[in-house]
Specification:
The structure holds 2 protein chains of 2 kinds.
Chain A lengths: L2 E4 L4 E4 L4 E3 L1 E4 L5 E7 L5 E7 L5 E4 L2 E4 L9 E3 L8 E9 L5 E4 L3 E6 L1
Parallel strand pairs in A: 2-12
Antiparallel strand pairs in A: 1-4, 3-9, 5-6, 5-10, 7-8, 8-9, 10-11, 10-12
Chain B lengths: L3 E4 L2 E4 L5 E7 L5 E7 L5 E7 L6 E2 L7 E4 L5 E5 L8 E8 L7 E2 L3 E5 L1
Parallel strand pairs in B: 2-11
Antiparallel strand pairs in B: 1-3, 3-8, 4-5, 4-9, 5-6, 7-8, 9-10, 9-11
The chains are: A mainly beta, B mainly beta.
């Protein structure tokens, strides 16, 4: 079956530091890949997505590249802000499995001023 | 548009009690989903409805039932709550052909 593995948190950074959150996946086909963000007390929001190999998703300064050869979709940001503190979830959508999302366990990011 | 709404926001139940979690979306989406979120486990799919009139089991359906009342509403029922069902429950919806799922704010359920 499909699975998504993320680095465990929490990740604690100072403001303006570089962020990387690792995500690797296992899937039988050619899934679409996503990063969702959950701010405290809220539901999940789509942060970025990539639908095929070598695509780069980007939004709000965050980027992630779909790497089929390493089955990875690592999230990066060059300079984090306190307002980026949240839980980040990597997910895959298997179009051949009822369009169901499979989520990683989530990584909590805390950014200190 | 309100997007995806869920009621209640918080609920405490005793073991064996029943309750229904309500979800509604006003985006004319065909597909709707119920997830539970537990620490360190991400979100796990309980049930989904690909279209009005259909429902299917997800990864963790035991102990739950669902009803797709109409295109807007998708409810989740716990017939006899157990402490293992203590969790945060999220409803989501998706437009057919689209990739993005839109999530509600969640219901925090505690079963004692």
């Amino acid at each position: 079956g499909n699975s998504v593995t993320q680095m465990e948190g929490p990740v604690t950074l100072s403001e303006e530091a570089f962020l990387t959150i690792n995500c690797t996946y296992t899937a039988t086909g050619y899934p679409s890949l996503f990063w969702y963000v959950q701010y405290p007390g809220e539901g999940l929001q789509l942060l970025l997505k990539a639908t095929k190999a070598d695509d780069k998703g980007s939004n709000k300064g965050f980027e992630a590249t779909y790497r089929k050869e390493t089955t990875s979709f690592h999230l990066e940001k060059g300079s984090v802000q306190v307002s980026d503190s949240a839980v980040y979830f990597c997910a895959l959508l298997d179009n051949n499995a009822g369009n169901m999302l499979t989520f990683g366990g989530g990584t909590r990011l805390m950014v200190k001023p | 548009n309100a997007g995806v709404t869920q009621t209640p926001k918080f609920q405490v139940l005793k073991t064996g009690q029943s309750m229904t979690l309500q979800c509604a979306q006003d985006m004319n989406h065909n597909s709707m989903y119920w997830y539970r979120q537990d620490p360190g486990m991400g979100l796990r799919l309980i049930y989904y409805s690909a279209s009005e009139g259909t429902t299917d089991k997800g990864e963790v359906p035991n102990g739950y039932n669902v009803s797709r009342l109409n295109k807007r509403e998708f409810s989740l029922r716990l017939e006899s709550a157990a402490p293992s069902q203590t969790s945060v429950y999220f409803c989501a919806s998706r437009l057919s052909g689209g990739h993005e799922q839109y999530f509600g704010p969640g219901t925090r359920l505690t079963v004692t």
